[in-house]
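Complex record, three chains
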Amino acid sequence: MSMKHRMTSWIAAACMALPLTGMAVTAEPVMIGLIYPTPVADVGWAKQLDLAREAVEEAYGDRVTTRVVENIPEGPDAGRVMNQLVADGAKFVVLGSFGYMNDGLRLAQRSPDVDFIHASGFRQTENLGTFTARSYEGFYLTGMAAGMVTESNTIGIVAAFAIPEVIAEVNSIALAARKENPDVNIRIVWVNTWFDPAREQEAARALISQGADVVFSLHQDTPSVVNVAQAEGVYVVNTGSDMSAHGPDAVLGSVVTDWNSYFVEAVGKSLDGEFTGYDERGGLASGMVSVAAWNDALTEEQMGRIEEVEAALRSGEVHVFAGPLNDQSGTERVAEGEVLPDPEIFGMDWLVEGLSGSLPQ
Amino acid sequence: MIRLPWIAEPRIGRTGPRALLAPLIAVVTTVAAAVILMSSQGVAPSRAIWQLYIAPLSSLYNLSEVLLKMAPLLIIAQGLAIGFRAKVWNIGAEGQLLLGAIGGSLLPLWFNDSVNPMMLPAMALCGMLFGMGWAALAAFLRTRFNANEILVTLMLNSIALQLLYYLVSGPLRDPYGFNFPQSAPFPPVAMLPSLFGMGRTNVSIIVALLATVAAWIFAERSMTGYKLQVGGVAPDAARYAGFREKRAVWLSLCIGGAAAGLAGVFEVGGPLGQLQRVVSPGYGFAAIIVAFLGGLNAIGILFAAFFMAVIYVGGDMAQASAGVPYAVNTSLQGVLLVSYIAARLFIDYRVRWRRDITQQGVN
Amino acid sequence: MGTTLAFLLSGTLLAATPLLLAAIGELIVERSGILNLSIEGMMALGAVVGFATIMATGSHWLALGAGGTAGVALSVLFAGVVLLALGNQVATGIAVGILGLGLSGLIGKSYEGMTVAPMKRMPIPVLSEIPIIGPGLFNHSLLVYLAPLLAVGLWWMLRSTRIGLVIRAVGESPESAHAIGYSVLMTRFLAIMVGGFMAGLAGAFIATVSATLWSDGLIAGRGWIVVALVVFATWRVDRLVIGAYLFGLATIAELLVQGMGISVPSQLLTSIPYIATIIAISILSMDSRKMRLNSPASLGRTYNSTA
């Protein structure tokens, strides 16, 4: 390489570096505010959001700072906290709970220069996007596993509230487990609380006493049900985080939600000034949903079948809610050859045929 | 047998400026506790005090948040204090507030596309009636069956909460709300107009101030208010004066219930804009603190409500800006009231050492 | 079916035990004429201190003791304000309760969502071998058996011992009790300490024995149920025991019925204990003679023990 050539490449490199160093000196880091409904614990909903916050910090380094406000109930105070974050200069705000919707929408309207993303919401604006995980896809896989390992042919489900997200997961478990094992019997207890660990545990024990040897913990934020399953010697599938540390023998698989790449992408767009409110729904394909901590009790052959279905779900070749599908009353909900459209999945208010019990009001 | 080395004699008559001593002691204790607790969380004491007590007043927006928070506390506490002075212990304001929120929500949910400007007054009336009716249950059981109103109103709190849960996840649930346990959003006519366009403050604070004036007139200038108070201090004298205890119970609970119900309407028609599972962050209980902190006096309650609102808002801000856990704030509320009640000893009683009394001899 | 019935029994006992423990304490306090509304806060503080202790030592018994002690610590504050500063009992109870909840959240922050190993069970020989009843009633940790025994002891104490007599006398009329030479102050102080210990113990039981985890909000309103229970029982120990187990039974039965695929109006079920309490106290208060028999007449009234 000639001297001249070296020179030019050096100059080019310097020129390229200049704007970067210039930015690092002059630009203030952009503040990202996050509001969680619960305290950040070892595991759980807030923990997963916080992992994504760390991913954002890692991805953008000095360009961003983050500030977390945790344990903010969905009430009249949530509005003040998010206002405070914006007043303190946050340019990107993560609203970590469905119940922050109205305050969030109002604030987003008033603060056009701030970008927002809102968990589980269904309304988007110019500067407010929403994000939801297709956890039902993960529950389809774990539902298959449950159908494979159950010896009592009874699967129990401890479910928080009968909102569409949870109902879709219940249906997904039922469809998968029954496909693997047509004799399977599914029992559901709605605890009607987002948070009462002692009651969740009582529900799990009740289901186990009724013969369930696999218990699903749908949207319990603490390892309450996992803990019971470990003590009682049954399998458990939980939501949110990998909880196998709390039930090393019991966890059949954890349906993990991973917001990292979505947060990094959304913050990136915001930093570049290209953010517009959009609806992000990720499943197995985007990695937003995955199953961690598969139990060793599953044989290689069984895991092979699960992985086959996982690949098919990822590629879109197979759909969880593909017809023909009937509801409890036998009415056809999805015709042969069709799949349930998204708005109906995220507005689901019916249980699939064969499930007993009605939805709580 | 243990004999305490001091004597506490009840003071008779007006307490005068000494009454200010208790709130002063309470505030100083609370600030001291704030410094200790905040330091334990790694926040410098000066920053802690700034965040909790000064920042909430440092900008127009923050002040508007304080006023927003103050309104329900003030309304409920004024209503409760009337009963407390008559020694009718209504601790069911939380439940009465929830009933008010439910009652106030019915009209905007039934007439969801209404543009009638009478919507808000009608909601307020409906909510007050609901709150009053809930409290009247306790009044009925007390006057008819002699059932202790403390315990009955306490139980009614828990029942009201379950009723709210049932309604928002059933009959009053938003049909287009994806089955989430909350009602449809209210139409614009059902929303309280905001005040001078500053932040979220709305007309509820004006109503709360009017309620304060009304409570002051009722307590200081009206015959019924006077009789109620006498009935509390000296039941025998009241009976002699022809004032029936039953009437005091009914009046106290109905006023308290209506006030709490109104506060409930202002929450759903104000910051919330819909009926949902979480309507009140414990306003009904906090208002009991406010009523006592204000010395059960209409003017005192005004200041107490303001102070409590500052602490609430300061706590939220400290959490958002300095990462101080909200539990610090909760603890400080406890410290504030405990130290205030303890300090009241020196206002309601004349405390003297026994030793000094024996030296003086009996006179 | 057998395991379901066994669970109906064992689940009932497990759910009822912390309620019964705390209610035993509260009953003593109320019988002495003091209304302590800070049970929820005392249980929460007991729960978190118990949990912190077990994390540090691994011992369930130390955890339970520490939880009880935390309850006592908070009780000292409550007693000081109510007995010495002559503060209003309702307001003081609410204030101390709020303080307890705040402190529990603060202490518990670093333990959020953690779990501990369950306590060793003590199956009772022979009895635990009986089908259904054995695993249902006779295979528990020691405190589960101890709670009803404590209740029996309390019943006997209130009825047949001098201490019981003094407590009842003080609760009935502190003025008369003082006149015949009983120390109202000391009696009430000790009663409040016992009440605080039991509430803290109950909280620690939930955190380290039944739920085996800590999370802010773990007590979830059970402290208020305890207050309701004591009133529902109209201050009688036998009804207290029945009430606690009935409540536990209702909780567990609801979950089992749901598991059978029958939907239940769960909000109505949750309200039943409170409605029952209102009815119970109304019926009891109606007859002033009956009311006299068990209810502490001076409940909630400030008594100046220096005068």
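Note: Residues 68-322 of chain B form a domain with the ABC transporter involved in vitamin B12 uptake, BtuC fold (CATH 1.10.3470).
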